[in-house]
Design a protein that fits this description.
This protein is α/β, with parallel strands linked by helices. The chain folds into 2 domains: 148 residues, 3-Layer(aba) Sandwich (Leucine Aminopeptidase, subunit E, domain 1); 320 residues, Zn peptidases (Aminopeptidase), CATH 3.40.630. 32% of the residues lie in helices and 22% in strands. The strands form 4 sheets. The protein has an 8-stranded mixed β-sheet with strand order 7-8-10-9-13-17-14-15, with helices on both faces. Strands 1-6-5-2-4-3 form a 6-stranded mixed β-sheet, with helices on both faces. A 3-stranded mixed β-sheet has the order 11-12-16, with helices on one face.
Length: 485
């Protein structure tokens, strides 16, 4: 099932079966009178007298062949409210009937530019489903036709919304794939396919990584028959060689915990332990599709954490790409090992303006923030403020958590420069972030987003059905649009 949005002209309104109109928050419908027949107007006016006007979306079955949807627009709205309104309208769409829907832009009275764009963006985001492994294929498409003289405003930004949707859907697809399909070898191939959009992609395999000294990353994947990789995606949207914006993602395609084996219950959810990397890949696809006027780089570490005869053991000591040594006390604290090497590499090679890493890093962040906020840890106040603001605008909210040198004593090791977990207990998310901060060597502005509670939803959210959310693609896109494009 899919949603296709089209711009239509010269439509005979009398032949429309599903008609979407907008009015003010009090359901004053004088403004729609010229877009419906006199009988339809009278019929809706009578029904409104007994309708629940607290709802912002009502529908009226005029007859067996025609339904009119009436959506009220409040005076004070954020763009995210409009997206949620579009997502809510999606629940009224009947996929069983092959009907077109017509949205009349001329009935929209709002100060927010491109109201229709945000409305249909929310509708499309909510429509996403992952059903490619269902035996019975549902090849149904709903057409959303945009009509009205004001559709020029919508056309202007249509490609921008499309790019963002494609990037978000790609991230959701990656997270939704099972571990036997999207292992590191396959993942690297899928990223490489994005070259066709203009991204410069480099894949570092195990042989190259060993030569480079990325032993923290390699240690995580050494128990798997699959390869381990570091993949870089560069988008050069500026002619000048300005410092790029850098985004780094954890790509643990399946996490058993390794020798420190996880409980069997809910282990199937560990297919989404690569969601941080999926966000980075989806973001880079979005930037390439919309030809963003920035320079950016995405870096992802791809591994599979498995038990086996060659698996990393608790008590092992590895030397990271930075030269710092790490004592592995728990092989299930693996994401920070992947990111440690990826962060140092990104900083050294690309010398970025800032780095943002994303990872489903700790269960502790879910204890702290549930599924309402992702945890934000940062060494830079300005970057933090911009990220929080961007998150609020697109309803991908962040909550800043503490970093402090006093937490370092919890991850200091007697046998190496540091250990990969805090055995004392408490502050699990903070000590993980504190660990990552040790691999920022040149004081580059950096933020770590722990998205463990946000990457996957059992029940669905405002703009997504249950499953992968694509959290972070829209947030980082908004950060870029507001401050760097």
């Amino acid at each position: 099932m899919s949603i296709k949005i089209s711009i239509k002209k010269n439509i005979n309104i009398k032949e429309i079966r599903n008609y979407v109109l907008f009015c003010d928050e009090n359901f004053n419908i004088a403004s729609i009178k010229k877009y419906v027949s006199n009988n339809e107007f009278s019929y809706i006016s009578d029904l409104l007298k007994t309708s629940d006007l607290k709802k912002n979306l009502l529908f009226f079955e005029i007859n067996s062949k025609k339904t009119i949807y009436l959506i009220s627009i409040k005076k004070s709205l954020k763009t995210s409210d409009i997206e949620s309104l579009g997502a809510k309208f999606h629940s009224f769409i009947n996929y069983k009937k092959k009907n077109d829907y017509y949205v009349n832009l001329d009935t929209i009275k709002s100060k927010i530019e491109n109201f229709a764009g945000y409305f249909l963006h929310g509708l499309r985001l909510k429509s996403y489903e992952f059903k490619i492994y269902k035996s019975i294929k549902e090849k149904k498409q709903i057409n959303i036709n945009v009509i009205g003289k004001n559709n020029k405003i919508f056309i202007k930004d249509l490609s921008r919304f499309n790019a963002l949707e494609e990037g978000t859907f790609f991230a959701r697809d990656l997270v939704s794939e099972p571990g036997n399909i999207l292992h590191p070898d396959e993942y690297a191939k899928r990223i490489n396919s994005l070259k066709k959009y203009g991204l410069n992609i480099n894949i570092y395999d195990e042989k190259k990584l060993k030569k480079m000294g990325m032993n923290a990353l390699l240690g995580v994947g050494q128990g798997s028959i699959r390869g381990s990789y570091l993949v870089t995606m560069e988008w050069n949207g500026l002619k000048t060689k300005s410092k790029p914006l850098a985004f780094v993602g954890k790509g643990v395609c399946f996490d058993t915990g390794g020798i420190s084996l996880k409980p069997a219950k809910f282990m199937e959810d560990m297919t989404y332990d690569m969601a941080g990397s999926a966000t980075v890949v989806g973001l880079m696809k979005n930037l390439a599709l919309k030809k963003a006027k920035i320079n950016a780089v995405g870096v992802v570490g791809l591994v599979e954490n498995m038990p086996g005869g060659n698996a990393q053991r608790p008590g092992d000591i590895v030397k990271s790409y930075s030269g710092k040594t790490i004592e592995i006390l728990n092989t299930d604290a693996e994401g920070r090992l992947v990111l440690a090497d990826a962060l140092t590499f990104t900083e050294k090679k690309f010398k970025p303006k800032f780095m943002v890493d994303l990872a489903t890093l700790t269960g502790a962040i879910i204890v702290s923030l549930g599924s309402e906020y992702a945890g934000l840890f940062s060494n830079d106040d300005k970057l933090s403020e911009r990220l929080i603001d961007a998150g609020n605008k697109v309803e991908e909210k962040l909550w800043r958590m503490p970093l402090h040198k006093n937490f370092d004593k919890l991850i200091n090791s007697k046998n190496a420069d540091m250990q990969n977990i805090n055995y004392v207990g408490g502050a699990g998310s903070t000590t993980a972030a504190q660990f990552l901060q040790r691999f920022i060597l040149n004081k580059t502005p950096w933020a770590h987003l722990d998205i463990a509670g946000m990457a996957f939803s059992k029940y669905g959210g405002a703009l997504n059905s249950s499953g992968a959310t694509g959290f972070g693609v829209r947030l980082l896109n908004k950060l870029i649009e507001d401050h760097y494009e």
